[in-house]
Amino acid sequence: MAGASTTPTSTINTFFFHYKELTGAKPVAADFAKAEKVVDIKSYGDLGGEPNTIESTTLSDKYQRTVNGVQKLDAIKITSNYIKGDSAKLKTLADKGEGEWWAIVMGADASGVPDGHDGIYAWQGGLSFYEAGGEVDKVRETNIVVNCNTAPELVE
Fold first, then answer.
1. For 84, left (φ over 0), alpha (ψ -120 to 50), or beta?
2. 14-154, what's its fold?
3. φ/ψ (deg, to 5) at 36
4. For the chain, which residues make up each domain, given as ranges?
5. CA 102 to CA 156: how far, in whole Å?
6. E runs forming strands in 35-83
7. Confidence of residue 37 (pLDDT cuts 50, 70, 90)
8. Is the pTM value of this prediction over 0.85?
9. How many CA atoms does the CB half-sphere of 6 hold within 13 Å?
10. Is residue 74 a contact partner of residue 144, using CB atoms and an 8 Å limit?
């Protein structure tokens, strides 16, 4: 695996993976061998969210005060180009249910093989998908939604 970048990187060589035959505890670096690329992706949503803001101002405060509450965690939305064979693969993965492990893999080796040298964020959840609406002069797309039963975390 190439070393992690020490400067900001672009989103090129970012991939969506599914961990096969992994149940229970969150993945570790060695488990990447059990993962496979789901589909080529065009975009992915935030891998976390802001905490709720809880009002804590008292009558003796001159300014409003707040404290952080529970962190929001929306489902992760991913966009890919529509390819009929990919939809069949996504259907099979969706049928697996809510206990599957997923990852956004950042980085590939010199030959373009995903290796995650810039990070692998993994989470557990269930996948659903639907074909996006169309427009004139646009490519067909698939919207993939993976709910979060665990928060996405950097795999160590």
1. alpha
2. Elongation Factor Tu (Ef-tu); domain 3 (2.40.30)
3. -135, 150
4. 14-154
5. 15
6. 35-37, 43-44, 51-55, 66-71, 76-81
7. very high
8. yes
9. 1
10. no
